[in-house]
Amino acid sequence: MAEIMFWEAVLRAHDEEMARDPLVICMGEDIGVAGGTYKATKGLYEKYGEKRVMDTPISEGGFTGLAVGAGFLGVRPIVEIMSVNFAWLAMDQLFNSAAKVRYMSGGQLEAPIVVRSPGGCAHQLGAQHSARMEKVFMGIAGLRVVTPSNPRQAYGLLKSAIRSNDPVFINEHELMYNMKGEVPDEEYFLPLEGSEVARPGSDITLFGYNVSVHWCLQAAEILNKQHGINAEVVDLYSLAPLDRAGIKKSVAKTHRALIAEEAEAPVGVGSEVMAIINEECFFELDAAPVRVSAKNVPIPYNHTLEKAAVPSAKDIVQAVLKMFGKA
Amino acid sequence: MKLEDKKQVLRKMVLARRFEERCYQAYIERKIGGFLHLYPGQEACAFGVMEAARPGHDYVITGYRDHVHAILCGADPKAVMAELYGKETGCSKGRGGSMHIFDAPNRFMGGYALVGGPFPLAAGMGKAIQLKGGDEIAICFLGDAANNQGAFHETMNMAALWKLPVLFVCENNLYGIGTAIDRSTSVTDQYKRMCAYNIEANQVDGQDIDVVYDAARKAVDHVRSGKGPYFLELMTYRYRGHSMSDSRGYRTREEEEHWKKRDPIFILRDRLIEAGQITMDEFTAMEKEIDNYIENEVVKFAEESPEPNVADLEKYVLAD
């Protein structure tokens, strides 16, 4: 099992699927000649040519719609939207066309497209380049939403997404493209529905997804070493649908739950997971579940303010200690 | 177009007109719900273009005024009417309604309700055709008002840039919902806007099917031969309001009467009478026969078809 970077994992999934199926194409801004802002399509233009690796104009709504229309005829486009903030411009086509066409046609048409896009807060990118939009996508019937937290998931989810006949939105992270991790040498598909136990534990479940999985893992180490609390970390890599069974199983084991999210609290992964805990395993709980979320503000440019807006492992530790009456 | 073909076209145009008028009645009777956008007045546009194209082979997409376009591609009028009634036998299984008629086997790729939404979808179908190497073309029928959406400009740029095999048909009926084109649009001649994208374009009378057909032949040949997209603007008029909730207070009855004198069906009918292909009596008999067909077969089928099963509510949301 080789250790590769996140962007290399994404690239490998593209390359394997494009080599296998001539109807798999990719498109986006600067993905071809320039090799991709995050290198996730590096070398594909030279290998597959401009008909299959399309440098698009800066027209997110237009090229996303184009991908959907190509999908009607069996093409499987992988669309890169350079920053998730720009995906707002593609929302009409994602929401009104891609997600609804199967339903409103009575099952006659489908939009087997993949849209990948990095979101999250990086380093002082300001309010219009720091959105966390997974909460918007996960509420849309007909759209699948997944969010990898490591290179293995990035590879396995993209492979599954390309083969899926449903539209899939893959929420990546600006800061994770250079993260290293082990990826199986053989072909590997991660199912588009499910969750993974990233660290087994017995005293509390820390739910995270994408970047917040790493905060949860750091917090679990601190809790274990400094406070004798053995936390389980569950990686919710599928946001739509959420893994109800996985959530229930872990909470039934630990009887406590915390959800860590990089996004603002209102109407998000945290509120949804909390609702599922209430519906599925309320009587298993020994304490009220807690959310650790970003402040509900546009992300400020100033470095100190930016850090104050977004949660960290330290915030998770504090919230857990409070729940255990130790803070 | 050959004379004997024209007789067939006239028959189908009358069917389209009477179908739409029957929808109006069913809507008043509350048999049809939601929004209903009717096509009378504009028939020569879709008929002229589709006579020049290959229905069932070429891919067609349009907006919410879509019943007639679907039927022209080969959709069964019974399945279209059943869709308007929300029945399981409807061409979209009762899940779509008037604005979302689909018939994929006949390559009618749907009616869409976001103004301008189909532009990039059509370009995408063109991209797929190009990639697969077929001789089909994609045809996108939309109204003039859709051209004020960003999707229009983004799509025209990409279609021209990549020489996509798409025929854009602009049915310019002079109104976007209830606002006259000269009150909403800086350049009222829509074909002129194609200069900005280096797309070949033409503007012709959309009431005379012979004129539409001749222009559409050139347009279809251009696109099919791999020369890239084409934009055909057809000057036309819708007799009814934008949808059923529209009392047409924004235009004069004189203007409506002026256009009704240039009715596309009467233009073709009178030309065929003059050519000795049909008599007025035969035309009247044909209308009656079509009305009987619509009543006794189309409407009857819709009325008697079953409702969708509530247990199937969540079917078709996801595939896998």
Report what the structure shows.
The complex is a heterodimer of chains A (327) and B (320). Chain A is of the alpha/beta class. Chain A folds into 2 domains: 2-183, Rossmann fold (3-Layer(aba) Sandwich), CATH 3.40.50; 196-323, 3-Layer(aba) Sandwich (Rossmann fold), CATH 3.40.50.920. Chain A contains 12 helices and 14 strands. Chain A has helices at residues 6-20, 44-48, 60-72, 91-98, 101-104, 134-137, 151-163, 211-227, 244-254, 269-281, 303-309, 313-323; strands spanning 2-5, 24-28, 53-55, 76-80, 114-119, 144-146, 168-173, 180-183, 196-199, 204-208, 231-235, 238-240, 257-264, 290-294. Chain A has a 7-stranded mixed beta sheet with strand order 3-2-4-5-7-6-12, with helices on both faces. A 5-stranded mixed beta sheet of chain A has the order 9-11-10-13-14, with helices on both faces. Chain A has a two-stranded antiparallel sheet with strand order 1-8. In chain A, strand 13, helix 10 and strand 14 (290-294) form a beta-alpha-beta unit. In chain A, helix 1 runs parallel beside helix 7 and helix 3 runs parallel beside helix 4 (91-98). Chain A starts with a strand and ends with a helix. By secondary structure, chain B is an alpha/beta fold. Chain B has a single domain, classed as Thiamin diphosphate (ThDP)-binding fold, Pyr/PP domains (Rossmann fold). Chain B is 44% helix and 12% strand. Chain B has a 6-stranded parallel beta sheet, sandwiched between helices. Chain B has a two-stranded antiparallel ribbon with strand order 5-6. The termini of chain B are far apart. At the A-B interface, helix 3, helix 4 and helix 5 of A face helix 5 and helix 6 of B.
